[in-house]
Specification:
Elements (H helix, E strand, L loop, with lengths): L1 H8 L3 E5 L4 E3 H17 L7 E5 L4 H12 L3 E4 L6 H11 L3 E4 L12 E4 L7 H7 L15 E6 L9 E5 H14 L7 E4 L6 H13 L3 E4 L5 H7 L5 E4 L1 H8 L14 E4 L6 H11 L4 E6 L3 E5 L13 E2 L4 E5 L12 E6 L6 E2 L3 H6 L7 E9 L5 E6 L4 E3 L2 E3 L1 H9 L4 E11 L3 E10 L7 H8 L11 E5 L12 H8 L3
Parallel strand pairs: 1-10, 3-4, 3-5, 5-6, 9-10, 9-11, 11-12, 12-13, 24-25
Antiparallel strand pairs: 1-2, 7-8, 8-18, 13-14, 14-15, 16-17, 17-19, 19-20, 21-22, 23-24
Length: about 500
């Protein structure tokens, strides 16, 4: 599917790096062919896994496409993972080949074929691929064939390997390309990591399908993003990116004059950030909702009202429902379990048939683990993870409701609400709050602020003031870390 778009682009720029290096679509085709030939020469067979834990570079894009072309399963690993975590992934997925950073070579010693790649894209992988042919007949893959294994972020319990198929990737890429109105001349500014669904699949696939120029930055840097915005039309980021951009004095409507679309995902976007970005730039951020296991499920419209605090409507061809514990549909405005069905949904978890069975309803909907509600106009809002639901005195408390109220407090920068064990209530509603610079907050004043605005059973029993909230690589607050930190206090 991708190759059909590349053929029309030929000499057009595909990747532009921050040092000025450029690769055309013809060169992308040649370099991915070299990687595919190298992998094929190792004796790897269809479906074998290739583990990759390296810094972002053009060579990672070549390697990823080379794996797909060779009929292999791409296994990207977060660069923040340490030796113990890598050991688990290698033992679980049993990759036949791996590409790692030079300093992490020992972590992959059990992998039969091992190559290195440094932050500049140099190393034994690049050297070996350079000697391969620049043509490769892509292995034909069926929709159900394994394309990638993406391990869940593991904020609770052991990470699970989500098996993503070629059909999953194709359906989501085509849908997003149409829904977000990609067009000739679009230029994607890419500052996301390439080990995550957002940067690897959502951003990369939509741009490649469009044969767009991709400005590939090694990482997010607010100043660098500002320098490239005038040359770009599409930017995809996480909420933290937008918060940091808003802190830059140079963010102006004039700087964003050529921009067509700002997309946010991977974590909830605060109303303050949503409104602040619109007032500063004149652009309304498009927030969408997806997950490792499903790709993208919903999106605010490209044309039409983008409603803050919501993740929009189900994407074409994807069914999204909100149900009670018995899988019965909930009325609009009522919080329930979010479930998804469509060609974007994974077939299951790697070597976990029982877990796979648990996560699907009898009629084939995937249990996302998220709680949410549709409003009267059909916009979906996410209330939080079901495992983060607090049950206090027999009442269900949804953290998002309390967090939204606390975030409206003039002295609060952000907040997270968790449940901690309590002898009387089972769980006590507990808030962890980050103050705005120069603001003095007290536990008593914040509890008083919530009282009178929410039912008593929702009022936090304790409020802790913290310097920052713990987050994973994609900006999601790690509530399991908060529970562990404050449970003894």
């Amino acid at each position: 599917m991708l190759a059909s778009r590349f053929a029309q682009a030929g000499g057009d720029v595909c990747l532009e790096l921050d040092d000025g290096t450029r690769y055309s679509y013809a060169e992308l085709d040649a370099e991915s062919a070299r990687c595919a030939n190298l992998l094929a020469s190792l004796g790897l067979e269809r479906g074998d896994r290739v583990a990759v834990q390296v810094e972002k570079s053009a060579q990672v894009v070549f390697l990823y496409l080379g794996c797909l072309r060779a009929g292999l399963a791409y296994l990207p690993l977060n660069t923040a993972y340490r030796e113990g975590e890598v050991s688990y992934f290698v033992g679980d997925a049993e990759p036949k080949a791996a590409v790692c950073r030079p300093e992490a070579r020992a972590w992959f010693s059990r992998v039969p074929q091992l190559f290195e790649l440094d932050a500049s894209g140099r190393g034994s992988l690049a050297d070996a691929a350079a000697n391969q042919s620049a043509t490769f007949r892509t292995v034909a893959s069926a929709p159900g064939d394994l394309a990638s294994i993406i391990y869940t972020s593991g904020t609770t319990g052991r990470s699970k390997g989500a098996m993503v198929t070629h059909g999953n990737l194709v359906s989501n890429a085509l849908t997003l390309h149409r829904y977000w109105r990609f067009r000739a001349g679009d230029v994607l500014l890419h500052a996301l990591p390439l080990f995550h669904v957002h940067g690897l699949f959502v951003a990369l696939h939509t741009a490649l399908l469009n044969a767009s120029r991709i400005i590939l930055l090694p990482r997010f840097d607010a100043g660098q993003v500002l320098r490239y915005l005038p040359q770009s039309t599409v930017y995809m980021g996480v909420p933290t990116h937008y918060v940091r951009l808003l802190a830059e004095p140079g963010l102006t409507p004039e700087l964003c004059a050529q921009m067509r679309l700002f997309v946010s995902g991977s974590a909830p976007l605060l109303a303050e950030t949503f409104n602040g970005f619109r007032s500063r730039t004149g652009h309304t951020i498009l927030e969408r909702y997806g997950m490792t296991e499903t790709g993208m499920n919903t999106s605010n419209p490209c044309e039409g009202e983008r409603r803050g605090g919501t993740v929009g409507f189900p994407l074409p061809g994807i069914e999204v429902r909100v149900v009670d514990d018995a899988n019965m549909p909930m009325q609009a405005g009522t919080i329930g379990h979010v479930q998804v069905r469509g060609p974007n949904v994974l077939p299951g978890y790697w070597r976990l048939p029982e877990k796979t069975k648990e996560e699907f309803t009898p009629d084939g909907f995937f249990r996302t683990g998220d709680m949410g509600t549709f409003d009267a106009d059909g916009y979906l809002s996410i209330a939080g993870r079901s495992k983060d639901l607090v049950i206090s005195g027999g009442y269900n408390v949804y953290p998002k409701e309390i967090e939204m109220l606390l975030d409206e407090h003039p002295g609060v920068h952000e907040s997270a609400v968790i449940g901690l064990p309590h002898p009387d209530f089972g769980e006590a509603v507990t808030a962890v709050v980050v103050a705005r610079p120069g603001t003095e907050l007290t536990e008593e004043s914040l509890i008083a602020y919530v009282k009178g605005r929410l039912a008593n059973f929702k009022v936090p029993k304790r409020v802790f003031i913290a310097r920052e909230l713990p987050r994973n690589a994609m900006g999601k607050v790690q509530k399991n870390v908060l529970r562990a930190t404050y449970s003894a206090k």
